[in-house]
Amino acid sequence: MKLLIIGAAGMIGRKLSLRLAREGRLSGRAIGGAHLVDIVTPPPMNAPFPIAREAFDIAAPYVAPKLAALRAEVIFLLASVVSGEAEADFDKGYAINLGGTQALFESIRREHLLSGGAYRPRLIFTSSIAVFGAPFPEAIGDDFLAAPLTSYGTQKAICELLLGDYSRRGFLDGIGLRLPTICVRPGAPNRAASGFFSGIIREPLSGKEAILPVGEEVRHWHASPRSAVGFLLRAAEIDTSQLGARRTLNLPGVSATVGEQIEALRQAAGEKAAGLIRRERDETIARIVAGWPSNFDPARAKALGFRADADFSAIIRAYLEDDFEQ
Amino acid sequence: MKLLIIGAAGMIGRKLSLRLAREGRLSGRAIGGAHLVDIVTPPPMNAPFPIAREAFDIAAPYVAPKLAALRAEVIFLLASVVSGEAEADFDKGYAINLGGTQALFESIRREHLLSGGAYRPRLIFTSSIAVFGAPFPEAIGDDFLAAPLTSYGTQKAICELLLGDYSRRGFLDGIGLRLPTICVRPGAPNRAASGFFSGIIREPLSGKEAILPVGEEVRHWHASPRSAVGFLLRAAEIDTSQLGARRTLNLPGVSATVGEQIEALRQAAGEKAAGLIRRERDETIARIVAGWPSNFDPARAKALGFRADADFSAIIRAYLEDDFEQ
Questions:
Q1: Which of A292, A259, A289, A288 is nearest to A136 (CA)?
Q2: Do β-strands B173-179 and B248-250 pair in parallel, antiparallel, or remain unpaired?
Q3: Does B144 touch chain A (CB under 8 A)?
């Protein structure tokens, strides 16, 4: 089985690649080769199968036909401009998050037609809970409408619709995953408006100060990177006929307030760590985050075997085990 | 005030143009000129303001910049490949229904930026109840999710999302209208899968046979062309700040079964007319129609002053008064 991972140099893409390289198998089958692609060349890694690594901008018109021509049987489409950047740079957000995805789907369709219908890859698309916009119910159910309040959320919601139609027409076998906010993100902050949810845990654990731009009462929906990789692997192996026409899933996660996050940090690392969080309100971030959902009832995904972290303390433990470097 | 009507040669576009020409005013202001555009040149008409008529394919890349450069203050975007054709011709449906709309929005955004933010037209976009897909509640509420089961419905749902984001960003002042199926359509049948809903009334009223491809128990959601024009005029004049972030409305209409349609025909034109309906099941049409919604609770649109026909007999009366030619 041949794999293509688009967005392989990103945090989740790297963890997914490493996990696949370690296991050598996906959906019970041996991996025959993997093509790792991102805007920068993904880092090298050891694997029991050949790995090709390349740098491409998926918004450039020659790229999608080239990637689709690889005829990978499983494609992970993780590449995205993050929410804060998509809001700040309208053109770039649409070109990459919508244009790049649409071009890839269309190129896959051409390969499907060229193959006489034989080529129909499993395509795992990472969407986001940013497709939802306030007002919200107490917990968002599987049938809640996508009414985004950001350009990023709009782009993701549009890609979900395309994924559904291209799957219904049989051009590809798509599954969309509305990932919770990934927390704790290791490494340097990115430009996502949600970055502080990780920063207020990661930085104090390393003895550094972190900025909290919103109030402690803000509730949000989290999953660890480890859970996110588990979601992607599960999406590659499930029988998609169980999805019916609605190809995108709300995923399980942990609903926690910023206050509860800080309490979990205090239990894991003590009062001194919690004291490193500096309150500095940012109205732009507060406004974006206020439009995001905070709690879900992801019954479909749970029934399909998607599993999340038990609570926010488990999320901190996953970070300490997988990513923490003193 | 300058108007641009894209899709002005279509049935609704012609009726809207004639109504505006007759009244000479829109939203309480005198119309200074109208630009009528379609894939074929719209027919001439007398009006108290200058009218320009042109043929363009909105999927051609030079067209959207040209139309946006007119800087019309009110734009009606009615142009569409119909549902049956969008399902049969995937490329054409996406190129026109999605590509054409997206190019127009983007060109309007360029004009907005060029004008230093001053140009921000009211844009009335005709969407469709085909954005919804089964399973449905008893009556679809204003917060029901868009989960289309056709390419046409997917394209409309995507345009609604773009309309919402371009409006939120202030590039245009958009309002989307999910039109009920328009019934009774005058003239020749088009390629819409919903065409028979009109055919079984229009053809027998003219003494001709009509084919019914589905069962009499099929329930559907209708509005007369007269109501549709009323919706468009109302959309041009309302205060869009009342819409909030959700810029697209479910519209009022008449929920009727095919059996109830036939009974209304019988009351209007007698048993002989009703006898001209020939049952000839078409599985493709039956499958498409089965995925469409049949009943709504359009509370938001009603509160905003959108008004539909009283019942299916009123829809037949509107046809007899406005369009019937013996």
A1: A292
A2: parallel
A3: yes
What structural domains does chain A harbor?
2-180+224-250 (3.40.50.720), 195-220+254-295+304-322 (3.90.25.10)
pLDDT above 90 for B289 = no
Q: Is the Cα dihedral B47, B50, B55, B61 positive or negative? A: negative
Name, in order, each residue with C-beta under 8 angstroms of A208's C-beta and a sequence gap of 6 or more: A276
Could you tell me if A287 lies within 8 Å of chain B, comparing CB atoms? no
- Helix (H), strand (E), coil (C) string for chain B: CEEEEECCCCHHHHHHHHHHHHHCEECCEECCEEEEEECCCCCCCCCCCCEEEEECCCCCCCHHHHHHCCCCCEEEECCCCCHHHHHHCHHHHHHHHHHHHHHHHHHHHHHHHHCCCCCCCEEEEEEEHHHCCCCCCCCECCCECCCCCCHHHHHHHHHHHHHHHHHHCCCCEEEEEEECEECCCCCCCCCCCCHHHHHHHHHHHCCCCEEECCCCCCEEEEECHHHHHHHHHHHHHCCHHHHCCCCEEECCCEEEEHHHHHHHHHHHHHHHHHCCEEECCCHHHHHHHHCCCCCECCHHHHHCCCCCCCCHHHHHHHHHHHCCCC
| Beta bridge pairs of residue A26 | A29
Strand pairing class (B122-128; B2-6):
unpaired
Q: ipTM value of the model?
A: 0.95
CB contact (8 A) between residue A154 and residue B169: no
- Structure-token match 């549902």, residue found: B83
Residue type, A270: G
Do B146 and A146 lie within an 8 Å CB cutoff? Answer: yes
User: Is A161 close to B164, i.e. CB distance below 8 A?
Assistant: no
Phi, psi (degrees; rounded to nearest 5) at B311? -160, -175
Identity of the amino acid at B144: F
For residues B171 and A211, what is the distance between their CA atoms, to the nearest angstrom?
33
Name the residue in chain B with its Cα closest to that of A159.
Answer: B158
Question: Which is catalytic among the residues B94, B119, B152, B166?
Answer: B152
Task: Give the closest-approach CA distance of B80 to chain A in angstroms.
Answer: 18
List, for residues B32-41, the tens digit of each pLDDT value: 999 999 999 9
Q: Are A222 and A257 in contact (CB under 8 A)?
A: no
A121 touches chain B (CB under 8 A): no
For the stretch A238-247, pLDDT in tens is 999 999 999 9
Inter-chain contacts counted by CB atoms under 8 A, chains A and B:
52
- Measured CA to CA, the distance from residue A144 to residue A151 in angstroms comes to 19
pTM, two decimals, is: 0.95
Q: How far is CA B324 from CA B55, B182, B260, B273, in A?
A: 28, 15, 21, 15
Alpha carbons A295 and A180: distance in angstroms, whole number: 10
CA-to-CA distance for B211 and A129, rounded, in angstroms? 46
